[in-house]
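Subject: Glycosyl hydrolases family 32 protein isoform 3 structure
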Amino acid sequence: MLNMAHSFVGFCLFFALLFGHGVVELEASHHVYKNLQTDQSTASANQPYRTGYHFQPPKNWINDPNGPMVYKGLYHLFYQYNPKGAVWGNIVWAHSTSKDLVNWTPHDPAIYPSQPSDINGCWSGSATILPDGKPAILYTGIDPQDKQVQNLAMPKNLSDPYLREWIKSSKNPLMQPTAQNQINASSFRDPTTAWLGPDKKWRLIIGSKIHRQGLAILYKSEDFVHWIQAQSPLHSAKDTGMWECPDFFPVSVRGQNGVDISVNGPFVKHVLKVSLDDTKHEYYTLGSYDIVKDIYTPDKGSVESDSGLRYDYGKFYASKTFFDTAKHRRILWGWINESSSVHDDVKKGWAGVQAIPRKLWLSKSGKQLVQWPIVEIQKLRSNHLRLPSKLLKGGSEIEVSGVTAAQADVDISFKVTDFEKAEVLKPSWTNPQLLCSQQGASVKGGLGPFGLLVLASEGLKENTAVFFRIFKGQNKYVVLMCSDQSRSSP
């Protein structure tokens, strides 16, 4: 049984289901949402590509999610934002709060250029909740010499659950590249959430590189203000280029609950995620963290490139997780940068959205992470449409009638019986993206392609295929999920 839930698609004139060889039993239910913009004033015929599910401000450019956290019962999301237009530049930390991660209240920017250490931009960073419950933000600033330096900001009023005002440290910058520490002044950014070691010292990592070697530079502090660079990076990898937006956190080996960032020991594994500036892809590894030596070691067999494990194989970058203390889960945010041109972005007045927040946990095998849209997203479901089970043969198509909304949430199950028809998975087929591009929706296989045609015009002259193929591996069957945009509009 294959399940595909929360498949968010937009502007479907109708759905079609496409099937390759074999016999497939299909059961599908469809949930249609209307007028669910983050800012409903922009939901009009003049803005057909604005989303109804994803977080986005009414206008202008956004990119990296920064410092998500929970404080006094409210979720906080900070993100990179250009208040002056729909292209990158003039970056500040925009700020919104929510009670449910679905409905958001915007506030004035939390951090904006005002000190020499950030006068040319307030770039990405992270939030840390200190032991007394006080939030702290560490972020990358661009100084007058265009050096990348690290700064600290604290809330002005801790009794304000919305944290609407922030005060920058007079000691900024707290960390900066120098000739002594041999850090590249243009490759030193995006501090992580800090964690406490058994020696009561804070630790964090900052993304960097030396030539083509990606680095997670480690810093330590006793007071969260005075930071000292460790002699060795937490981890590095050859030929990966600049590591942006690193994220380092533990996951429990027991169950789906998240754990605080400072937890270590035999009941957790650690995750190191990096965003690759060269390819604009991300990858993560699972491994162990030696808190005494301050060294992270990926599990044996880990692939350290964007051919390795990834959260997402679509447009998804600069991701950031946080531990939701209210519901004991780890939540993943990520930035989606569309494929539209700069000209089109300026014309429509906005660019970028945040991905649907996802709960993250370790698989039962312990070899990869599992993710699922947060349960709160389901409150948006309405106008339920159910398609009864259908037995379909290879080459069949069926229109799902009654879906007229601009966007829909599809929850669909496939039951496949003819596994003997599955093609053998070749050992050289290790890159799922390459395999998807070589075997598009029009290439017939043993078991597949089968799935959905979305964004489909009448007659199917134009459509986007979201489809599956099943292969026979050494000891199990492998499911490949792909999208084919060869018949999609630009």
